[in-house]
Amino acid sequence: MNSIEVLRKYWKYESFRPLQEEIIRSVLDGRDTLALMPTGGGKSICFQVPGMVLDGICIVVTPLIALMKDQAENLRAKSIEAVAIFSGMTKREVDIALDNCIYGPIKFLYLSPERLASELVQERIRHMKVNLFAIDEAHCISQWGYDFRPSYLNLVILRELHPKVPFLALTATATSRVIDDIQAKLAFSGPNVMRKSFFRENVAYMAFNEEDKIGRTLRVIRKLGGSGIVYVRNRRETQEVARILAHEGVSAAYYHAGLDTLERARRQEAWKSNDVRVMVATNAFGMGIDKPDVRFVIHLDVPDSLEAYYQEAGRAGRDGKKAYAVLLHHQSDRLRLQKNLELGFPSIDFIKRIYQHLGNHYQLAYGAGEGLSLNFDVGDFCSRYKLDVMTALSALKFLERDGWIAVTETVYLPSRIKFEAGPQDLYKFQVEHAAYDSLIKVILRSHGGAFDHFIPIREHELARRVGRDLNTVVNMLNHLQKLEVLTYIARTDSPQIQFLRPRTDDKRLHIDSGFIRQRKRILSAQLDAVFGYLDGQVCRSTMLLAYFGEKHSAPCGVCDCCLAARKTVDLEDKLMAELTEVLADGPLTLEQLVLQLKSGDEKARLAFIQRRLDDGKLRINGSKYDLAR
């Protein structure tokens, strides 16, 4: 099938969105391609369609574990074979999944970038028939970007494994410098950038200096109607603001990474189906959510980069109808962001101390721990060693950048099992152990493929079907594992930390201080750009587009700055007409003139009169004012 036939068969769309077809054609021609598309522009289609058209497997690298799981599940729902490999899976699960990619019918393999550090994964990829490497969130590879992730620097290894396979790099936010850096870091064969303008004609960007942020938020929500998102900076605020909105009669829920996965999914679905009108959330909310009818996105706290702000604000108005992105700021926001910048760059000694705390926390001997993945509760870790959370998180990022550890987001992994006994041995076991017979039969009837790979199970459902309580079923599964009848892995719902190298002492623990200094300069410049946006008096959309390299865009006409400028022009026209009329019968004193003008307040009238004197349209004769002839 060609690309349009694949689109119609599997995605049920009749035609591509703007730029999608050009990107797909470039990929099918075997060209390395960098695609810049705004949030909600349909990036996944750009690699999924050519992945289906071409013979072999498409490897997709993304740092967003929840997104890769969703995309893999969505592809399987379309009868397209896809698997995802990320932190939290056991070595055996990874081994089986990679084998299926080499010998089975898998068309898409989703990988977190950390996985590419593994020689096992590299060697298996070498033996796959790869048709395309798709790099999502490609800005993460650039230290000049707002969300630099050191693990992305491993991606060039893919070029060495399959030199002739094209790369498709995708991002929604990238400055000109980041665009060049992405292509260099991925060793593009030649420059090839396809971009869709970042201009959103239906989105009105607003930024207001506001002390009473909650009051302004309520007025915006009531005035605009429809569903929306209110972004805040921490988990505590999500609950507080959602409670205030609910008290004021606004249907609201809160969302942050601290909620368990099933609860997050439930709240997200309630918002998407409009059972909840407003979601109050940290920036953990929104990735991969394609809700078209979001009428407003309100930021109660200022993001630390224009890239982050543009991406979050871009979740408004994906249906093409009028929507608003409202940023509320105050002097306290600037002080907080500047303080956070300082906290984000701890000393080398502090970073080394964090590393040793990690080794002690998990009781790792020196020389041990390479490749080990463990649950990681940052709150518990910081409490135990009396650490500031923000400074500790920053230290972890620099340890990650230098290749010592990898830290992943909260990830939900359901319980999984795989039969280790073959069908004949299992039947014999059932005959000899009648107490386990009903449980094994339920598993076999409910889950196909349990002899070949790990399958997800729900212990509550198994308990209901075999007529036992939950604890009994869990104990039975654990006992079956001890007897080597099956492997049982209980569910997890926590962040993961992986030790990429054996634990070492401080003398051998190299931390790149030059990189830290440079990174601080980059983030400081990004913060200056945010403050410039807040203080700017020209079109908000023009300021954002200029930041992303679109230098000559026309004013949007709908942001707060454009509306203020238009209001000023309208007031000038009204005052000029009134001035001509009141002076038609002769000169007036300043006091008489200000009283007889009707538009604007006294301050605006006085400023208008001064401007007319400056441009020569008014003259003073003695104590009276008259039109210049």
Automatic annotation (TrEMBL):
Key word ATP-binding present: yes
Catalytic activities: Couples ATP hydrolysis with the unwinding of duplex DNA by translocating in the 3'-5' direction
Domain annotation Helicase C-terminal: ranges: 213-362
EC number per UniProt: 5.6.2.4
Source organism superkingdom: Bacteria
All copies of domain Helicase ATP-binding, residue ranges: 24-192
InterPro entries attached to this UniProt entry: DEAD/DEAH_box_helicase_dom (IPR011545), DNA_helicase_ATP-dep_RecQ (IPR004589), Helicase_ATP-bd (IPR014001), Helicase_C-like (IPR001650), P-loop_NTPase (IPR027417), RecQ_Zn-bd (IPR032284), WH-like_DNA-bd_sf (IPR036388)
Any Gene Ontology CC annotation: bacterial nucleoid
Swiss-Prot/TrEMBL keywords: ATP-binding, DNA-binding, Helicase, Hydrolase, Isomerase, Metal-binding, Nucleotide-binding
Biological process terms in GO annotation: DNA recombination; DNA repair
A Pfam family per the record: Helicase_C
Single GO MF annotation: hydrolase activity
Keyword Hydrolase listed: yes
UniProt cross-references to PROSITE patterns, sorted A to Z: HELICASE_ATP_BIND_1, HELICASE_CTER
Family, per entry: Belongs to the helicase family. RecQ subfamily.
Name this protein carries in UniProt: ATP-dependent DNA helicase RecQ
Species: Parapedobacter composti
Lineage: Bacteria, Pseudomonadati, Bacteroidota, Sphingobacteriia, Sphingobacteriales
